[in-house]
Amino acid sequence: MRTVTRRSSPPTPSTLPGVERRRQLRQQRRFERLRDVWRLLVYAGLATGLGYVLLRQGWMLQGPAQVEVSGSQLVSRDQVIEAARLRFPQPLLALQPRLVSNALANSLPVERVRVTRLMLPPRLRVELVDREAVARAQRRGTNGLESGFVDRTGRWINADGRSRVRLVGRTSIQVIGWNERHRPVLGKVLASRELIGSGLREIRFEPDGTLWLTTKELGPLRLGPEDSQLDRRLEVVAHLNRNLPGRLQGQRPFSIDLTDPEQPELNLQGTSATTANGPSSWARPPSRPHP
């Protein structure tokens, strides 16, 4: 009896081990991508929901007690809340510190404002610096001559009772001819009070913008126009205050012209002008160091 041997058919490409393995890997990668997308959607939904809950329910200002006000002796917490137009409950994250700072600076007698949001526990911190009147002032208004004060930056302060402001010392300095366009120069002069000396009595602006100072020791000083040489002229004023000669004690100069700060002109009452390069060499300002 003859035995017939069957030969097995060659494997098709679809049944090869490598092909099957690659198919399984592709399915696995598709499954992982779907799983990652699903996780992303779940996490995004949770984050959105949590953010909404925190914004609407968690980080909330429930009442005035959560508004902290410091640094001012003139402004109360109720005034801050009213000026900032806060309404309770108030979502903390909905408040913009810059906008709140601007609203407070424009409505309250303060020089500086700093607003900070604090999350744990939720509260709003407001730090204030009161405006301080450092000089009395006069200006020409629509109804004639007006009297008031200026702060250290040269900003005008009304003299009526509504303008709550602290007076620094006796405010013995008088500003004549105040105008908004002079405010940067006035602020620079007021910031140089210690440099000029304690004898500063008057700061005057002429209609053409010419600046005059009057000190106890030197009398009137013409500083000239509001230009880039103002800092140099203030240095010369300080130098003259320190070097007032004994022979001029009791014989105060009628005026000193510092329009050219390198050659001050001394006009003594009843005499002609004398420059710093002439007999009054004591007035010659110190040379500026070369860069």
Description:
With 291 residues, this protein is an alpha/beta fold. It folds into two domains: 60-129, Ubiquitin-like (UB roll), CATH 3.10.20; 132-283, Rossmann fold, CATH 3.40.50. Helix content is 30%, strand content 27%. It has helices spanning 17-58, 77-84, 97-107, 183-191, 193-196, 230-242, and strands at residues 60-61, 67-70, 90-91, 110-118, 123-130, 132-141, 144-151, 156-158, 166-167, 174-178, 200-205, 211-215, 219-224, 255-257, 265-267, 273-275. The strands form three sheets. Strands 6, 7, 8, 9, 10, 11, 12, 13, 14, 15 and 16 form an eleven-stranded mixed beta sheet that branches. Strand 12 (211-215) and strand 13 (219-224) form a beta hairpin. It is elongated.
